[in-house]
Write the structure tokens for this entry.
Amino acid sequence: MTTIKPLYKYIMKNNLKSIFIFYIIMTAIIHIGFFICKLSNGSSGGIGGMEIATIFLLFSLVLCSYRETMNLSVQCGVSRKTVFISSLLAFITCGIITGTMDLLLSLLGNFYESRIETFTYDSMYEQTFMPVGVLPKFNDFLKVLLMCIGVNTATLIIAFLIGALNYRLSKTMKVVIPISIFVFIFVIFPIVDYTIFDMEITKQILKLLRWTFSSVYHTLVIAAVTISAALAMTYLFIRRVKIDDKK
Amino acid sequence: MYLNLNDDKPIFIQIAEGIEDAILTDSFPEESQIPSITEFSVMYKINPATALKGINMLVDEKIIYKKRGVGMFVSSGAKQKLNIKRRNAFFDSYIKTMLEEASRIGITKEEIIKLLEEKGEQI
Amino acid sequence: MNCIEIKNVTKDFKNTRALDNINLKLEENKIYGLLGRNGAGKSTLLKIISNRIFTDSGSITVNGKNTCENDSSQRKIYLMNESNLYPPKMKIKKAFQVTASFYPDFDFEYANKLAKLFNLNVNKQIRSLSTGYTSIFKVITALSVNTPYVFMDEPILGLDANHRELFYKCLLEKYTDNPFCCIISTHIIEEVAGIIENVVIIKNGSIIRDTSCEELLSEGYTISGPAALADKLAEGKNIIGSDSIGGLKNIYIAGKNDITEIPVGIEIVSMDLQKLFVQLTNS
């Protein structure tokens, strides 16, 4: 399988460019935020949940490049299996890289937070799992790292799944399916749940969400489950897809 | 060597005949090198295998010989060999057709001979 | 034996059978002409060989190994067709580099040399190319990959006469320097008739001819002359078509020319590849 390496390198190169620029901007934002607070007398400010931006970045990276990567790969004689494996390896790598970068941002933000009273920084982890105002310690940062890697990788793979599904759909289906999903989640499901199941399903879902966010390890378990399910479905969508540039 | 390839005869035969013509008119003198297979195929837009077939025909008739690593050359005595070959084929290749056309349009043998005597010198 | 073997390949699209039990062997180091009318199934066959779509039944092997979803087999094959599968915003230079990373025998110098010959600016983005230059870019890539089997589906689409001549020249030069198996699928038959060694004709999803060009041409001739005479002479022969103008008739015969006595007024003419193709594929 000598094509895994060249394709992996190609995907990584494309992603790393955007990731690099992204983190330069993010670092600058934290610096700027801190200095604004420092220089203004008394008024306080804060930054929180920057990891959401990372999630958006990763999501759009994969969605925008899926079609091009797929087409280019097949033009260059790469099998769909190899596209799947190379992409997966690239996503795991990017998940680890961005997770680590998110951790470093978090360290930087919390460092500044410890310096002056008026600046607060809360990473997503802190917002979810820690009481307000408490500064994270070494153990917590470890968990930040794990959470970011897990969430980022899951984001990449979910985007991969959506990309793979989107590639297979005709123009009409591309409109029909999102609308159907929307209608199902916000109209059909609530009605069915209310009338037949007495809101039981919604209660169970809320219970699951509460469990997921009660501990970072739970979050990681759910991320792992999501990743596995998404990967399986993606493989099914990819394995026999017709390659065409006319979609 | 100018060739206008047509569909009357297989292309490899036309190539061979084109080379023969060039040898007879001294465009390819004896012991000189003739163009390579690549040059023939690119020049006349034909498959190299076709060019090769035509040339091999001439090699078999000892008109051309190949020098390994160098190229293909016109054999000495090729001109004479071709002369004999063309002479033997002259009647079938040209006279027969002329006689057929003459019979089609009603020109007699005497008229042909008269034409040859009057206009034959002009060529 | 190094070759691509297509065995019992059948492909259906909704209600039409695009390919019907195709059996074909493509030998290495030959130039093939893959001919067929619009919709005959040529492009479908090429797409199946290069793993773009899947066959419904049968198999295709290259040098003995299956081509379907097989990286090492696909490494020996390259297809250029009407699809533009390179990223539109990619620069041509970059496209060469990326292709080279997947095809280790890609000749960068040769690609750049061809680009200069054809006046192709390698710093342009692929999406900014005209139809003709898109074909030129694809053709240059196909000629530079150096895979044992190269498939070209309509390589001269949109090329002006000068570029078409240049393409044939480059193809023949490359073929004589480093022989490879090149399969050209095109509608412009007269132009490729000289350079192809073997002909494969597809009609309505089936292969109706698979021989050397020479053999195919020796198996067709035209009886031309007054209608009555022509009809008489053509009696009992395999007539594949005819046309008439006034009292004169051309009758197209498939088979070897074994006529010994040609009646006065009749002409026996050989058929060029395009004429033979048209007569064989007229429904």
The mean pLDDT of chain B is 87. The longest helix of chain B spans residues 78-105. Chains B and A do not touch (no CB pair under 8 Å).
